[in-house]
Amino acid sequence: MAGAEHLYVCNTCGKTQVSGSHLCNPVPIEEGVQCNYCGHAFHEPWHMCAQKLENVDYVCTTCGRVGVEPDSLCYPQKIDKGE
């Protein structure tokens, strides 16, 4: 990777990209993103803590990312938990 390139993560959906221009809420990876559930800062876009995992109800039909709220995913679908 060239020295001028930076990796960005979308703070909303978790997508990563070298340029932040195509992300709705870009954050440079070196700054990290704070998890709304456990409070820890993380640098990987697919962070999954125990607190978040307990509340996961949706999956993105495009990338497979899971989420607690449908608005945190690009194409959310409710997970059938058989309850």
Count of domains: 1
Write down the overall mean pLDDT.
79
* Rg (C-alpha, Å): 14 Å
Low-confidence segments, ≥5 residues, pLDDT <50? none
N- and C-termini, Cα separation? 47 Å
Strand order in the largest sheet: 2-1-3
Helical residue percent?
Answer: under 10%
Helix/strand order: EEEEEHEEE
Number of DSSP helical runs: 1
- What about the largest sheet? 3 strands, antiparallel
Q: What is the overall shape?
A: globular
Q: In percent, how much strand structure appears in the residues?
A: 15-25%
Q: Quickly give the structural class.
A: mainly beta
Number of strands: 8
Q: Could you please describe the fold and organization of this structure?
A:
Helix content is 7%, strand content 24%. By secondary structure, it is mainly beta. It has one helix at 50-55, and strands spanning 8-10, 16-17, 26-28, 33-34, 41-42, 58-60, 66-67, 76-78. The chain contains 1 helix and 8 strands, in the order βββββαβββ. The chain has one domain (8-78). The mean pLDDT is 79.
Distinctive features:
three-stranded antiparallel sheet; 83 residues; 8 strands; mainly beta; globular; 1 helix; single chain
